[in-house]
Amino acid sequence: MKKLINHPEDVVRESLEGFSLAYADLVKVHFDPTFVYRADAPVSGKVALISGGGSGHEPMHTGYVGRGMLSAACPGAIFTSPTPDQMLEAARTVDGGQGVLFIVKNYSGDVMNFSMAADLARSEGLRALNILIDDDVAVKNSLYTQGRRGVGATVLAEKICGAAAERGYDLPRLADLCRRVNLNARSMGVALTSCTVPAVGHPTFDLAEDQIELGIGIHGEPGQRRAQLKPADEIAEFLTLSIIEDGPYQRTVSEWNEEKEEWQDLALESPPLKYGDSVLAFVNSMGGTPAIELPILYRKLAQVCEKKGLRIARTLMGPYITSLEMAGCSITLLKLDEELASLWDDPVKTPGLRWGI
Amino acid sequence: MINNRTIVAWLKLAARSMEENKGYLTDLDAAIGDADHGINMERGFKKALTLISPVEDRDIDAILKTTGMALIGSVGGAAGPLYGTFFLDAAKALSHLNELSNTDLVLLFESGLKGIQRVGKAKPGDKTMIDTLQPALEALRSAFAYGTDLIEALRWMVQAAKEGMESTIPMVAKKGRASYLGERSAGHQDPGATSTYLLIQCLLDAVESQS
């Protein structure tokens, strides 16, 4: 293992210490329990947006704390979901009187820890709702699995909902918006190499020089299947078509019902993309793929979208949701309407994403 | 008879077992998950040991509750809420007891299992810790019904737990991160089922070392 670290067990803490020093004007960090929060929190009169998850996906989530995006982020150990005490303390710190929306990626650990956190927050009189992100088309059905994983759409949901919270959307409206972003987003990823969790010391899986892993998530976990390495055009076409040709996706999620004061199962369906849709195209590096390769993928993505009648109205390209040093990429397409596009364009000022201010 | 000292001895042995098996559990997890189970379990039980030392002389439910809170607050992942709930729900079922009868011991595992099922929503055959815990509980129950003594009953339980753990090898995972692999998850032993087996083995060791 060759990494720029001091001790494997200190990686998350030391990284956060440096992070808060580097961006002291934007964020603060709290330890034990650990979370990063907006330097100007609590912002009164605004719903607070909190996300979190295992570390190792930087800049997500800590890099998205700031004006126009998250109020707080709760980082767990590397690839391990954070614990409820982190989210609870973050919620107490950033709640501006309008409640808290937890944006949760659909992994069993994250779902359980955030649900417990929301229950604890509500028991203290805070308003709290959870919305799940599950956009990974590599997972075909939700019947025999945990359901689709939360990947690229998470970044887009955090940006769009962050903007809406700044505009003054109330908690139920913000939850509806977040759900809508998720239902209209789809992602698919590929790995060229595995990655090494510092505390483990060796790569999570072995991948031969000429092999790729299709349908990976963001935790260095093995994907859907292996294939021979192919030129970028073929990989980009495969990923894009997997998204465009994905049919309606149904799943049942558990959401808190504020009126009945209980968790309720909700049947949701993601409609497929169709000819004539406007989309936001997001080409993401998994961490190890250099910036020069992403536009090569984007080039093919744009061609495929044109052929399929999709108009790319907005673009995001770079390492925004990573898996340590894994080489590879993911593509996310989000169907846009006027409201989503306009919220996307709103100013944002975070360590990881910044425009308009 | 199991008393609060036995429970503390159990948790100490569990912490040692998680430390010794950290690499083993993490390797099992690397095959079908995200390579953190051993690391998380070691961290969690280490934390539990620190937190239970001031309550070691209290009733069993206080020790179990402290353990559950420690695991929820330090393990992370799915294992934190699942094992944490196991101990919290067991504590709720056994309020103010200093010693556990055979029936109480069954109740401990029964309540813990129900808690895990409530939080994790997994069923037997989904390739999870339930595939170890459910047959282990059944073995304990039938051993007592058959009239065996505590140590013998726990040996039955450990044997059933081992078979349950091994039964996860051919299973296709339906819950947790391994479920994303579909058929590719078959052929690997489930890490959660394995750590559950280790915990049950530690309980037998604790009881044997005290008698």
* Spatial extent as radius of gyration of chain B: 16 Å
Structural class, from secondary structure content of chain B?
A: mainly alpha
Q: What level of helicity do the residues of chain A show?
A: 25-40%
Secondary-structure element pattern of chain A, one letter each: HEEEEHEHEHHEEEHEEEHEEHEE
> What structural class do helix, strand and pairing data of chain A support?
alpha/beta
Biggest sheet strand line-up of chain B: 1-2
CATH architecture label of chain B: Alpha Horseshoe
By oligomeric state, this entry counts as heterodimer
TL;DR?
The complex is a heterodimer of chains A (357) and B (211). With 357 residues, chain A is of the alpha/beta class. Chain A is 29% helix and 27% strand.
Description:
By secondary structure, chain A is an alpha/beta fold. Chain A has helices spanning 11-22, 84-94, 108-123, 153-167, 171-183, 232-244, 294-307, 338-345, and strands at residues 27-30, 35-38, 48-55, 72-78, 100-105, 128-133, 185-191, 211-214, 225-228, 249-257, 262-270, 278-285, 311-318, 328-335, 348-349, 354-355. Chain A folds into 2 domains: 12-184 and 252-269, Dihydroxyacetone kinase, domain 1 (Rossmann fold, 3-Layer(aba) Sandwich); 187-244 and 274-335, Dihydroxyacetone kinase, domain 2 (Hypothetical Protein Tm841, Chain: A,domain 3). In chain A, the strands form 4 sheets. A 6-stranded mixed beta sheet of chain A has the order 1-2-4-3-5-6, with helices on both faces. A 6-stranded mixed beta sheet of chain A has the order 9-8-7-14-12-13. In chain A, helix 3 (108-123) links the parallel strand 5 and strand 6 (128-133). Chain B is globular, with a radius of gyration of 16 Å. With 211 residues, chain B is mostly helical. Chain B has helices at 4-20, 22-32, 37-52, 60-74, 79-93, 102-120, 130-145, 150-167, 191-210; strands at residues 2-3, 99-100. The model of chain B has no long low-confidence stretch (mean pLDDT 95). Chain B has a two-stranded antiparallel sheet. Chain B contains 9 helices and 2 strands; from the N terminus they run E-H-H-H-H-H-E-H-H-H-H. Chain B has one domain (2-210): Alpha Horseshoe (Serine Threonine Protein Phosphatase 5, Tetratricopeptide repeat), CATH 1.25.40. At the A-B interface, strand 4 and helix 3 of A face helix 2, helix 3, helix 4 and helix 5 of B.
